Model the fold of this input.
Amino acid sequence: MTEEKMLELQDRAAERCLDYKKQGFNCAESSIRAIAETLDIPITEEMKRCATGFRGGGGGYMERCGIMEMGIVLLSFLYGRTDPKASTVDCSYLIRVLHERFITGLGSYTCRLLLPYSMAHTAAGDCALVYDKGARILTRLFLEAPELLKNMPEEERNLKYIWSVKY
Done:
């Protein structure tokens, strides 16, 4: 896929995410809908409904951003397992990359840090900046996921204990 096409899809996802926000959907609800539609990920109405509780860092608790959480949900949907003997390596690796990209792109993945930053940098004093950038981060990661997995560093592939990773 060309860089131009990737940017076009990122723009589309960000626009849809903000449109859902304007309709009254929260961050998690907006992002799961926007990303799934943009990338043709077949999610059910039940899955969309499950996004509701992730708003505001988990029911308003201000922990991990609802958009980040929906990235994890969708990555698990696409790369997760149903067999307990199957590997979790690919899914776990992509989720760690997602965390890194949120930190690089937004400075954090924690709602209590992202919300005040976004409020200070948007005309409406809301979380629109996070909706926009978060949707772009998720879209790019999903588009790059096959290549990321193909080129996964050997130390990631052989990771036995996640808590031993030093970032």
Summary: The chain has a mean pLDDT of 94. The chain has one domain: 3-159. The radius of gyration is 16 Å.
